[in-house]
Amino acid sequence: MHPDQPPVTRLEQALHAARALVLADLAAREVADADVVSLVEESVTHRRWWVEQWPEGSEFLAGLVAQDVQDALLERYGRWPVCPVCGSGDPHALEVEPELGADPHWVCHKAGVKVAAVGALGSAPGGGRAEGAPPS
């Protein structure tokens, strides 16, 4: 760290960690193009204000940013991340659980299983590109 730079606060560390986890999931599912990364940045900006109002919520940031990006992708491109567990039936997206809690995971409610922790979709089975998402 440069001596003229202020130390990184716990809030900034939590925001950077949440950003990194969601970007890792986007990259793992090959949807981390510039437009999608800007959705992450928009969420982080919004959540910075949110956690400044409620500092105890910093441990919930990864799940909240993941949900924000998932919602924004649904509006623009389609469902993401598509469930890699269910091989038949209509494609459906994984959901973040807990909705507001620590240690968020991507969960398939149809199969009733945790697929991966937020940030660890790269270690889950394949699939997950948003329907209609732009190629990276």
SSE succession: HHHEEE
Unreliably modeled segments: none
Give the number of DSSP strands. Answer: 3
Distance between the termini: 33 Å
How confident overall, as mean pLDDT? Answer: 88
Number of helices: 3
Question: Brief description of this entry?
Answer:
Helix content is 40%, strand content 9%. The chain is mainly alpha-helical and 136 residues long. The longest helix has 20 residues, at 34-53.
Would you give an account of this structure?
By secondary structure, the chain is mainly α. Helix content is 40%, strand content 9%. The protein contains three helices and three strands, in the order αααβββ. A three-stranded antiparallel beta sheet has the order 1-2-3, with helices on one face. Helix 1 runs antiparallel to helix 2 (34-53) and helix 1 (10-28) packs across helix 3. The longest helix has 20 residues, at 34-53.
